[in-house]
Design a protein that fits this description.
Elements (H helix, E strand, L loop, with lengths): L3 E3 L8 E2 L2 E7 L5 E7 L7 E3 L12 E4 L14 E7 L5 E7 L7 E4 L4 E4 L14
Antiparallel strand pairs: 1-7, 2-3, 3-4, 3-6, 4-5, 7-8, 8-9, 9-10
Bound molecules: zinc ion.
Length: 129
C-alpha cells in the first residue's frame, strides 16, 4: 500500500517507493534519469551522474516506461502525472520542469492545492482550470 504516481499515457507506475523515476532531456538534448521525491512538496531530487542540468534550465520529462512526453497541456513550464492516493482516489499533479523551481499543484475533483516556495510566480490559477 501507499501512494503511487502513474504515467497519464500508459498508466504505468513511475515510482519505486519514494523515488519517481523519469527520463529527462536537457536543453542540449542530452538524456538522463531523474528521480523526484514522491512526497508532494519535497523537492529533493537525484539524477544520474552523467546527466548535466543547471538551476533554471527547463528539462523535458518523459515516462521511463513508455517514453511519452509528460508535458502538461495547461502550461509550457509544467509536467503532469496522475497521483493515486491510499484511498484509491486519483488526482492530477502538475509540477515545474524548471530545475530548482519549486512549484507543484495537486488538482483533485474540486480542489487545487499549491506547494512550493516559488508558486507565487504562477499566482494566477486560471491557466490550469
Ligand atoms: Zn508511460
Amino acid at each position: 500500500m501507499g501512494t503511487n504516481y502513474l504515467c497519464p499515457h500508459c498508466r504505468g507506475i513511475l515510482n519505486v517507493k519514494n523515488d519517481i523515476i523519469l527520463t529527462g532531456r536537457n536543453s542540449k538534448g542530452e538524456k538522463g534519469l531523474l528521480l523526484l521525491h514522491s512526497e508532494i512538496g519535497n523537492y529533493t531530487s537525484k539524477k544520474s551522474d552523467d546527466f548535466n542540468i543547471e538551476i533554471g534550465e527547463k528539462i523535458n520529462l518523459s515516462c521511463s516506461i513508455c517514453q511519452s512526453n509528460l508535458d502538461s497541456s495547461k502550461h509550457e513550464n509544467f509536467a503532469q502525472l496522475q497521483y493515486i492516493n491510499i484511498d484509491d482516489s486519483e488526482s492530477t499533479v502538475i509540477f515545474s520542469k524548471i530545475y530548482g523551481e519549486e512549484v507543484t499543484h495537486q488538482i483533485d475533483q474540486e480542489k487545487i492545492f499549491s506547494y512550493g516556495e516559488h508558486c507565487k510566480r504562477y499566482a494566477d490559477p486560471e491557466w490550469f482550470l
